[in-house]
Design brief:
about 450 residues; alpha/beta; Immunoglobulin-like; Rossmann fold; eight-stranded mixed β-sheet; seven-stranded mixed β-sheet; about 25% helix; about 30% strand; disordered N terminus; disordered C terminus
Length: about 450
């Protein structure tokens, strides 16, 4: 009996030591986020897992919840090196939502848990949290860490505009300035895009994220016409701000707001640099009015809308060629009137509409007038929503004008690479044509 009791005690003790050893091993595994757990949304993060056994398989999973509560996820499988470490900057992913050496794959390859959703960021004052877990091949969570993806640097001033008739949010960098000024106009929804505006302000620009409908006391739905005087007032407000250096102002746009940006450049004298990302060279959905000038909108051809085998609507060819007929040519924005510089961007796999055709026609119109004040950039395999770096790709989502889920196109990796390249181009473009113009003006005076 004593022997059996001793044996049972030995088994219990052995089992306890095994559990302690397992827990000790799990606690030794850790995830490091470099340079730290806090970073800006457009900055790269180095993810390292340490404390694994040599050649141990580990799955990394990332998860974020946007400001609407929609969950986005990514995953990848790695093999630890001889020291028991995985460094996503040097180690290849063997499978998952991406493969190969992709330092930021856990961020840009995220897909929505609910299909056809786009990451929604309501305010730049609330960071996005990205949770990263390391799991064993049995599914045990070995370690967890959270990356806080921020939008505003310390000292940034976020100023909602509720005076006069201009609506939006003004972002001013820390410091006395003055700073080059940029008006940021986003797409359907009409509200201010605080994410892009704040991240651009982090780079030393005073950025007005301009709302133009569906926000505060502006019209709730897209109006039948847009008066350019509203956008002129926004430019005057930003240009007259004591912390904005002027005299010229920049404009950045995407999708529907592209025709608004081209119109601003064509008719407003204070615009010095315009970025149009996957926009149209004719007004879309609403006609444009400025003083005694009216530019009719380009009407869609509904017969050109198709449905993919998966049941998603494809509207790429819904808008006709603006130069096809005498009637449609009346809708083309006269960009040749503009004296500013243009950065015209088109994604070759844009399924929202034929961005490459519209971009080429704007460039041709300038070229025909012996102007060289533009740069045309095309991105192969990129989709419609070219956002800030590491923003999860949106291949399909609800379209406010259509009222249903539609295709937006793009291959995830190529789209992510395009976003990273474009972000650098935009900053260089605005610095060249806003900062240098001011310096030249001062020198002339």
């Amino acid at each position: 009996m004593q022997f059996q009791s001793a044996l049972r005690l030995l088994k219990v003790t052995s089992r306890a030591f095994s559990l302690i050893a397992m827990r000790s091993t799990s606690h030794q595994v850790c995830i490091q986020l470099l340079p730290g757990p806090g970073s800006f949304f457009d900055e790269a993060v180095q993810v390292k897992v340490e404390g694994l056994a040599p050649q141990q398989q580990v799955e990394l999973r990332s998860r974020l919840t946007d400001h609407k509560g929609v969950v986005f996820k990514a995953s990848s499988v790695y093999i630890a090196d001889a020291t028991g470490q995985v460094d996503v900057c040097t180690s290849p992913s063997l499978s998952g939502t991406y493969t190969g050496v992709e330092p930021m794959g856990l961020f840009w390859s995220m897909a929505p848990e609910t299909p056809h959703k786009k990451v929604f960021i309501k305010t730049a004052s609330s960071p996005i949290l990205v949770n990263i877990d390391a799991l064993s091949n049995t599914g045990e969570v070995l370690a967890s860490e959270t990356s806080e993806r921020q939008f505003m640097i310390e000292g940034m001033r976020r100023i909602p505009l509720k005076e006069d008739k201009v609506r939006g949010v003004l972002f001013l960098p820390p410091g006395e300035g003055p700073f080059p000024g940029v008006v940021d106009i986003y797409t359907l929804g009409g509200g201010p895009c605080e994410a892009r505006a704040s991240l651009l302000a982090n780079k030393g620009f005073a950025v007005l994220a301009l709302a133009y409908y569906g926000y505060e006391d502006l019209p709730k739905i897209i109006p039948k016409k847009f008066d350019l005087e509203y956008f002129e007032a926004a430019v005057a407000f930003l240009g007259g701000h004591p912390l904005v250096q002027g005299p010229g102002i920049g404009v950045i746009s995407i999708s529907k707001s592209g025709d608004l940006a081209l119109s601003m450049a064509s008719f407003l004298s204070r615009i010095s640099a315009t970025v149009s990302i996957n926009g149209c060279n004719s007004p879309v959905l609403s006609s444009l009015h400025y003083k005694d000038i009216i530019i009719p909108y380009l009407a869609p051809v509904f017969e050109n809308i198709t449905v993919t085998p998966s049941g998603i609507i494809d509207i790429r060819d819904a808008l006709p060629d603006p130069m096809a007929t005498e009637k449609t040519r009346k809708s083309v924005i006269p960009v040749e009137r503009a004296s500013c510089q243009f950065l015209i961007v088109a994604s070759e796999d844009d399924r929202n509409w034929n961005s490459c055709l519209f971009a080429e026609q704007s460039a041709a119109r300038l070229r025909d007038c012996k102007k060289d004040n533009f740069e045309l950039v095309r991105y192969p395999n990129a989709g419609h929503f070219l956002e800030v770096p590491f923003m999860p790709h949106c291949p399909s989502a609800f379209h406010a004008a259509v009222g249903k889920d539609v295709m937006f196109g793009g291959q995830t990796k190529a789209h992510s690479e395009a976003q990273l390249d474009l972000w650098s181009r935009v900053q260089k473009f605005f610095r060249k044509h806003l900062e240098n113009q001011t310096h030249s003006q001062k020198a002339m005076l």
